Amino acid sequence: MSALNRVPSLMVRAGTASALTIAAVGGSIVVPGIASDAEAAAPATKALQVAASKKGSPYKWGASGPHRFDCSGLTLYSYKKAGKSLPRTAAQQYNKTRHISAGNRKAGDLVFFHSGSSVYHVGIYAGKGKIWHSPKSGEVVKLQKIWTKSVWYGRVK
Length: 157
Prior knowledge:
Elements (H helix, E strand, L loop, with lengths): L2 H12 L4 H6 L12 H17 L17 H11 L8 H7 L1 E3 L9 E6 L2 E10 L2 E4 L8 E4 L5 E5 L2
Helix pairs in contact: 3-4
């Protein structure tokens, strides 16, 4: 039995347990109204899994699934399945996210490709410098290395 599974029985037997006791046995403390890192990351993880599940789906301009996608259609669809809403275009999605630095990016964050101040493409960060995206006409949803430094990152709120 893991320490995490013992926490409830410890609390039942003792009636209450201090925060230090709970932490010592590997438990977690729940504070109402505060999302844990895991809870906050859950939609991003789910969106990333959805995007990956669409591997091989053909690109179609203006399409947002479930069988064909353009770039922002894939991110819109993936996050919708994860319980989050995004606007339709890459530029609108950039404006809706919390902007983060490359050093703070995490799997599931959105990667926005830009020329000057104009966003022209979006994908979902998969870690290790790669994204899931629907590249362009004639191609399919795939995992690909980020090919430029002209990117911005956004975290879906």
